[in-house]
Every structure is written in C-alpha cells, then in structure tokens.
Amino acid sequence: MKALLLLVSVIVLNSTIAQVLPYKNPSLPIDERLKDLLTRMTPEEKFWQLFMIPGDLDGADSLQYKNGIFGFQVSAASKNDAGGQMLNYSTTENALVLAKKINAIQKYFVEHTRLGIPIIAFDEALHGLVRGGATVFPQSIALAATWDTLLMHQVATAIATETKTRGIRQILSPVINIAGDVRWGRTEETYGEDPFLTSAMAVSFVSAFENMGIITTPKHFIANVADGGRDSYPVHISERLLDEIYFPPFVECITKGGARSVMTAYNSLNGVSSSTNHWLLQEKLKGAWHFNGFVISDANAVGGDVVLHNTARNYADAGTHAINNGLDVIFQTDYRHHRLFMPAFLDGSIDTNRINDAVARVLRAKFELGLFEQPYVAEDKIQQLEMTAHKNLSRQASRESIVLLKNEGNILPIHKDIRTVAVIGEEAAVARLGGYSGPGNSKVGILAGIQERAGKNIQVVYAKGAGVLSSDWNIIPSTYLRTAKNEEGLDAEFFNNISLSGAPTVPG
Which of 109, 202, 324, 431 would bridge with 443, disulfide CB 3.0–4.6 Å? Predict the structure, then answer.
C-alpha cells in the first residue's frame, strides 16, 4: 500500500512539473525561456511590451491592459506642455506607499493577464530618486566637479538602494551628453564638456545600479546640444567628431558600466531623427558596439518626425520608421497614444523580425532582472532603510563638489572678527535642489545656513535682488508706445554696426 501511495505521489509530482511552461521554468537558460515566450505571444501582446508610459492602474478598466505593457513610471503624468515632454511627479507618497502601489500593479499583470509578464517600474534618478523621502545628492555637474569616481560610485549605490527598495527597476539616467554650449538648459544635468571625465563619472554611476539589478538608461543618444543650446533641433556633426567627443561616454557606459538601455534624443542627426536613425541605432550601437540591451525613445520623441522634423506623414508612419530602423520601445506620455502607433504593428508595415528582436531585448531584461521569479519588492525592508548615512554622504559630496575659482584679497575664509554679512539674491533664500529632484529632506538654504552659522554675534543682512521669473518685470502697456505718426506701436531701424552710424540696414 505504501509503495502504491509513493507511486501515485511521484506521478502527481511529475504531472505538476510537466505543467510548468518553459518560459516560467527558472531552471532553463534564458534563451530557451525567451524563445518559448515569444512563440506564445500575439501581435498585440508584442506591441504592448514595446510601449511605456507614466501612470498606473488608477482609473483603468479591467481590460485596458489585458495584453500587458512594458512598464509604468508610477504616480507620474504629463504636464500637457506644448511638446508633451514635461512630466509631473507625485512626491507625496513615501517609500512604503509607493512600494505597495508598485506591488499591487505588478500583481495585476502577473496574475490577471494571459501570459503573466511582469512590468518594469521605471523612474528618474539623476542625482537622487525623484520621490518623497529620497535623498537628494548634488546635481550631476557638481558631482563631476569632485573628480572622485569612488565617491560617485558610493553616491550611485545609495541612490540605487533607495530606488530598488521601492520596487523601481529601471532609471532614465544618467545624462551623458557633452555640454559644449552653456546656453543649453540641461547643462546642470551633465558631467561637463570633457568626454574623458564624463565617461569616468558615468561608468561609476551606471555600474553601481547595474550591479544591483537596476537597468540604467544613458541619454540622450546623440549630441542633444545644437547651436544656441537647443535640444530638439537639427544637428550636423562629422563622424570623426562623434567618435572622438560624443560617442565615448556611451561606449564606456555599455562596455564597462554594463548599461542595458539607451534613450534616444529629440534632435535629428545629419538629417535623420535620432529615434529613426538606422546608422546610429543599428550600425553603430547594436552592430559595431554589440549592444544587446534595448533602446527607448525620449518622451514623445517618435512623434517628433511628424511635428518637428517633418519626415513622417503621421504617427503610425513615424512608429514604422523608428522600429524598422532600430528603436525598441516607444515612450509616450498617455495611455491613449497607443492608438497612434499600434496599427503599424498589426498591418505588416513593421518588419516582423524587427518586432521580434525588439520584444526579445525587452523580455531578456525582464528575465535577467528575475522579475518572473520575484516580481514583488519586500515591503518590510523599507522600514530598515537607514537614511542618515545617505544624508551624511550627500553632505560629503556637496563639500567635495565646491570649487574655489578665485579668492582676491583672501576674503575666504571669512575672518573670525567679521560682524556683518550681506547676502544678496533670491537663490540664497530658496533651497533649490536642481532639475530632476525630489522634495528633499529637511532642506537648508544658503541664507538659513549662514544665519545659523553666524549666530547672535554676526548680523546677516539679506536683499532679494533681481528675481528669476519674467513676472518680476513690468512690461510697458502698448497704449503708451506711439510711432512718429502717433500710431500705436514702435518705429524701428536696424543697423549693421554697434555705433548706429550711417544709413540703417533696415529702414524704419
């Protein structure tokens, strides 16, 4: 009787093992699991693995995401700016609330979609995770000013720890564009103008995240700074200049840092938009550099072929160009945007082999991250996260980032006998943390810091000075502007010299 029961148990056990689909079997090589999963996917399911958006399941109907999705930037949404490129981030949710939210979302996709493919929760973490309670470190340009790659690695490890604890497994960082024009509004996000320093800092940053199982996304590929500091305009650069100045940080991030994703730029390169550039994405990135990760667009960048570069008839056409020429994932800012791009995936416009290659790159990353086996983050570990050490590290990095360019008359350090200090400027009173920052923790502005250090024996005098917003300027009403003919408006003459001599080039 015991032998019979044992035989029955073995049969039941073997039957259970046989029912485990190959792609769900962690003992199989990733290549086998990947091949099995791809054969089971419908065209719609493949499309959704190549579509990423800010948002979550709040307000979604039960069938809205039945085919899955690449992933969400949870608790974020479009600002509805003209270009659709700006996002709002909810920074009121603490780490535990966000982790629970991501776990709940993950549970839906694992248990209530046909194939149970987990999502990748992604976010911004340029110099600290853009979330409530997260530590904010000095801005990227300041971290580069330390010239300390070991310190950078420690900073990145701290950020990665706070990121992974919340369940976020991809960051859209770092910015490794070469800041060759200070008029570019994103210069602060870079590591400066030197490709060697940028590469060294980027590798230290990227490797810390990748070693902890978080995908990094170096951006923006490539040469995001056009003449005048514009980031969405045509760029014309020789291949030699690309190889010597603009490409090295990306090559280093991939070959030495292990970056598994890359984000394309808004601008075009030599007449072809970065998101549809076959030479850039297929020949250089995936061919010459053997990049095995996946390429995502910047937010709404694929549609730039329609509204910015005028190289596509419509959004479906733009999506076709992008995927066929090497882009893997379309990053949009609204769920409804899938309607613009999905038709090209279903009507044969996009090469099937290219779609399969793109999906395979995404799924490989999900297998490598272990999301099929461990899709959820341990909520109990959040309470154990020690933030004091991270704040001390941020303070250390801030000190190391300060560079004294000039000290005429040996004004610094301030003499101990000083009795009055004047502080001028709006920035001194506002503790700004830089672009892509969370709210910070117990911020102290420059003015407050000086006042605290001064104590009662030193008088601190503050003046706001000129403001930083245009609303601080008084514009003369047009009714007070009259031409020589006493008409409303202004007369204007234009000269081709600074002394305004001779006849005007453009008469009034």
Answer: 431
